[in-house]
Write a structure and sequence with these properties.
The chain is an alpha/beta fold. The chain has two domains: 125 residues, Serine Threonine Protein Phosphatase 5, Tetratricopeptide repeat; 233 residues, no CATH class. Helices cover 48% and strands 13% of the residues.
Amino acid sequence: MGPKLEAALEQLELRNLDGAREIYDEVLNSTAGDRPDVLARISGDLGATGHIDTIPELIAPRYDAERHGPATGINLLQAYLAMRSPESAQHVLDLLFALQKPELEERLWGFSNAIAELMVDRRQSRSGGSGSTHINLVTISKPIWAYGIEQIDGLLPAKSDQTKRIAFGQLSLPGIQDYEKLAAQPEEAIGRFARGFPLWMAETLFFSAQYSAVGVIGIKEQAHYALFPNEWTTDNIRQLIDTAGGTTIDYVVTGSLQEQGGDYQIRLRLWEIKGFRERKAFEATWTPATADQVLADLHQQIRFFFEWKATDGIPYAPTAQPTAWIDTLGASVSTFLADKGVLPREQLAPLPGNLIAPDTDTTALARLTIADRCQRLPLDTELPGLPDTPLVAAARARLGL
């Protein structure tokens, strides 16, 4: 059965849906067509290649939650959400909740919120309201602190076409209250973290020999940042892939961050795009007192999983101050996007007070490029003493600081 499904996927990648459907019809009408793994594979491949509408057509008449399990049901549910069909999505969600699987409960509540929002949007549209607005995904294709100085010799590693390409999406914030009102205001701490964290992860793998990595940030109609109140769906991931402009993306990492009473929990999901299946999940919980240690441990787990290997360019060393570095990256992307006119300057808040101390080449370059952008915005900032190294001197000369 595996070779037939591989052949169907090849047809999908060649944009020959009819050819793929011939194979799928043969498979689904055979005894193998009732196997959970077969239905999950077909629905996943259709979603990964953008044939969302075909998933309900082929899968919905055959899907039985008890018999086929949650994986296919989640693919079907995501397809209905992408098609903006809340009633059908609600039906599948009810089937999945009825399985009573505790490990799925948090994710299913995220889907429940997405369905509720879709229903509200539709009611607003029918009553003449504004409904939902478009979210643009901005791709940061190199370390955010390198923009403006990327031409300096020895700064960034060379990347070949053979490297795997991975995208880290902005963290969603399930349970956040009044998220649209909050997003329209000047940048605040949890939104900065939601954007800074994927930039940290992307930077880490950018400096690994096997990967090209990008961070992805949401902007709502170039009016202000976007906040995501629900976990990313297939539609978000598909938009991300389309945003890549023809560049192949092999993996996408989505994540969520929740805060309750000063305790924080992060969940990350690694998606392999070729088969559109979840490959790995990471989870961590911390308090303000334990944040740096917990985040450093999570960072180490991720490097270990991806078999991180050093490459050329500036030597990469994990930070011992993750929270300060995440805030610094968040501030860096805000000043960068405002400087480029992508983000309105009114969205900028004063720089966070815990910008990382510039005691290494990397941290010094981050502070230099922030200071350079702040001069043009203008935004108040102080540039503390920097290490006297060739890279820092080259960056100073290039920026005129």
